[in-house]
Amino acid sequence: MYKQKKVVVTGASRGIGFAITHVLLSRGFSVHMISKDAILLKKTCARLKKYGQIDFSVVDLSSREEIKKFCVKWDEKIYGLINNAGRWAEERVDEPDKNIWDQIMRLNLDGVYFLTKGLQRWIVDKGRIVNISSQLGTGGRIGMGAYAASKHAVIGLTRCWSLELSARGILVNAVCPGWVDTESNRIEIRQWARESGLSYKQKMRQITNPLTLKRFIKPVEVANLVCFLIGVEGSGITGQIYEIK
Length: 245
Ligand SMILES: NC(=O)c1ccc[n+]([C@@H]2O[C@H](COP(=O)([O-])OP(=O)(O)OC[C@H]3O[C@@H](n4cnc5c(N)ncnc54)[C@H](OP(=O)(O)O)[C@@H]3O)[C@@H](O)[C@H]2O)c1
What we know:
By secondary structure, the chain is an alpha/beta fold. It folds into two domains: 6-180 and 218-244, NAD(P)-binding Rossmann-like Domain (Rossmann fold), CATH 3.40.50; 181-216, no CATH class. 44% of the residues lie in helices and 18% in strands. The chain has eight helices and seven strands; from the N terminus they run βαβαβαβαβαβαααβ. It has helices at residues 15-26, 38-48, 64-73, 100-119, 145-164, 183-195, 200-208, 219-230; strands spanning 6-10, 30-35, 54-58, 78-83, 123-132, 171-177, 241-244. The protein has a seven-stranded parallel β-sheet, sandwiched between helices. Strand 4 (78-83), helix 4 and strand 5 form a beta-alpha-beta unit. The longest helix has 20 residues, at 100-119. NADP nicotinamide-adenine-dinucleotide phosphate (NAP) is lined by residues 11-17, 35-37, 40, 59-62, 84-88, 107, 132, 134, 177, 179-180, 182, 184-185. NADP nicotinamide-adenine-dinucleotide phosphate is lined by residues 11-17, 35-37, 40, 59-62, 84-88, 107, 132, 134, 177, 179-180, 182, 184-185.
């Protein structure tokens, strides 16, 4: 059903992007992955090949120049674009500058804006864009000012693009995950546990206790929501912001 439909997924080599790629392939979409680390991309591609048609490009999405070069070379119709690549770092407004602002904005915001701007002309009528924002795209947390600002901005782009692209029937939505069980998070939480003299389990309990589901969301659960929005089920939905937490 989706065989001829190509979806570009950024940050596809691991974490949520990997799960999105996996689920898209198993539903019959073909996927073009974009990430920065060529070795990891190659490995991911080899691992997922058995599920469907997959290829990749190595692009540093925090570099406008690299995005421009990639978009100029692109010459294929696209059904869907999933802007997933992103990163976070902590810095409070009242502590010395650690230079995280530019790094976060370049990837989480400029990357989404310029890649979409460069590729939009290839997106077919009735195509789809899904932007991965965050629960911090609608709320705040101590130390997360730059990240939250970038993810709030992604929601702003989603709302504007859904209006701007509606004449072509292109549907644009955002997904806002809470804590997701990714390897990157596990590494970070292990570090926090060490710093606070707690075991990994104790630290996890501290984080998950206040959560509604008392657990992290699985990457595949985020992927299923993205695939709902990309698939026939999502055909009447645009400009919407979905929290999953
Ligand atoms: N995990 C969570 O709890 C959570 C919660 C809310 C929202 N999110 C959002 O969900 C998205 C995915 O998060 P994740 O946790 O799955 O991240 P992750 O596991 O850290 O993976 C990040 C992905 O982005 C790619 N990437 C990083 N910097 C890049 C760059 N400069 N150019 C191109 N690709 C780059 C990475 O590729 P390389 O290996 O090549 O660097 C990797 O494929 C992000 O936008 C994040 O903000 C995550």
